[in-house]
Structure formats: C-alpha cells, structure tokens
C-alpha cells in the first residue's frame, strides 16, 4: 500500500559550500575542507546543511554521499563539458523537470539525487518533494521536481538517475522479500556483496525496502567461515582466537551440519549461520539451539521457498542478491514543455516557497 505523503515544501539549495569547485576534505574528497579535516562535523562540510541533516537522519554520511556524487559526475564529464547540452541549450535557459517512476516499486535515493544536482547547479535551485525514500509508488508517480538552469539539469541527469534507479531497484527487491516474510519473526538481511564504493548507499536502500543490514565492514563483527576454520586449525581454535583478540566483537559462525552446532553453542557463539540447510534441517537447528543464539539461513534461498524457511523460526534470511543482482527501478527525468528560457532570478526559489 502506498505511503506517499502530501507534497513537502520547496527547499532552496545553493552551490557547494566550500571555496574549492566540487569541494573536498583534501584532494580526494568532495566537500572542500582542508586535507586531514575529516574529523570535522559532516554537517559543516560540503552539502547544504538542510540536505546534509536529512542524509544524517537517514543513517548516511553526507561527506561520503558527496564524494560518490562527485565521482559519478567526474566520470561522466571526464574533465570536459556536456557538449550536446552546451550546444543545444541557451546558457540562461531555466526549466522545471520531474523525476518520474516508469514502473511501480519502492523508492530509495532521492536525497542522493539531490546531492548530485547540488554538485552541478551553478545557481540556487528549488526542489519539490512529492514522496519520500521507502514509499511505494505506482508507474507515472512524480517523485521529485526540480527547477534550475536547464543545462545543469541535463548535465546531472544521468548521474542522478544511475544512483536513484539502482538504489530504488534494491529497495523494490527487498520489499518483495520483506512482504513475503510478514507474520514471521524472520527478517531479510543483506551481505557484503555490494558494489565497491556504494556499500553504505546500497545498504541504506535495503533498509528503505524493509530489510536489515548485516556487517557494514569486516571490523564490525566476526564471521567465521570455512576458510578461517582451515587456517586456524578448527572451529574451536578459530572461535577462541577471535574471542581472545577482539573480546567485545560479536561472533557469528558458519555451519553446514547439525552436529557442528552443540560445540559452537558451548563456546558462546552470538549467531550461527546455517549454510545450505533444508527447511527441515533448519527447523531441527531451531529446536536444538532453543533460543541460546540467533540463527541465520543462507544459501538456496529464493522468493519461492523463503516462507518455509522463515516459518522454521530462524531470525534472519541472508540474501546477497539484494545488492548484487537486483534490477534497477525504471525512473526518468522529464523536462516540462513550458520551460522558461529566462535567467533564474537569485530569489526565484524563495518566491516559489513563499
């Protein structure tokens, strides 16, 4: 069911906050700070403070989002200009464009699309937010409307859409799993099988779709798998080594047989990953563990068999496909045909808002 909200008020978003074009906490960053200044409050660095605050509220690092936007645009422009747009669009032309869903799905990444636009726009621009991340939308729904210089809109179009379509695709796929598991205790959970450089954004999209996140990084928690067992000389040895070296870190242990569970429980594993168990074996594992550790099913999972696994009583279903195989959600950017070809007045956004 759609949770689309009433239209939110227009916001004014200016250019990059730093003096350096494109910004940056040092040469490699997009926010304009001095080298080594990453410790600064992210709200004081880079993006418009209101937009940065919204990203923080969503569990995202504004500096990281700005860096992703910067890299996407840098890749698309390759130190040049959008030659087609510069040749065909007058420099002072202004237009309103609508980000519109071409198919039904769950939206994720609207504020990230705004961040891309903020990197390109040479003047203030006005945004009108019609839906929020996590909302279900139908085909034809206008998600976000933007008014600014036409050249800036067209230059940022593909980079903004690439991220918005990708993240909305992940959210849409996750929502299918989350809806299927409704009524059970099981939650669909992602993995570290993410696109390099986009992990935080893709895991945010999973949350927008109703899923939960597994480790964000190798340092968050220990996951003892078969290769660790071989390297350490056994499951017990691997567990003891992790507990000794990192006593405060949660430990998850992968097993592929029921008989491996009792010794792991005895050692105090926080979570046990049941690798390629059948639903019947999973139910036996749930009864054996009896609440002494959390259980996660992994392998062989599809939308067709997810419900039987969830009904065994496991806590999580690990689905790497959420981030490595989800198709995009088709979203387009459409210029309104009544585009104004006059220059954008400095207070245009303020007049619309007032």
TrEMBL record:
Residues 170-334 form the Quinolinate phosphoribosyl transferase C-terminal domain. Keywords: Glycosyltransferase, Pyridine nucleotide biosynthesis, Transferase. It catalyses: nicotinate beta-D-ribonucleotide + CO2 + diphosphate = quinolinate + 5-phospho-alpha-D-ribose 1-diphosphate + 2 H(+). It holds the Pfam family QRPTase_C. Gene3D superfamilies: Aldolase class I, Quinolinate phosphoribosyl transferase, N-terminal domain. Pathway: Cofactor biosynthesis; NAD(+) biosynthesis; nicotinate D-ribonucleotide from quinolinate: step 1/1. It comes from the Bacteria. Its EC number is 2.4.2.19. Residues 82-168 form the Quinolinate phosphoribosyl transferase N-terminal domain. Belongs to the NadC/ModD family. Involved in the catabolism of quinolinic acid (QA). NCBIfam families: nadC. This is nicotinate-nucleotide diphosphorylase (carboxylating). It comes from Streptomyces kronopolitis.
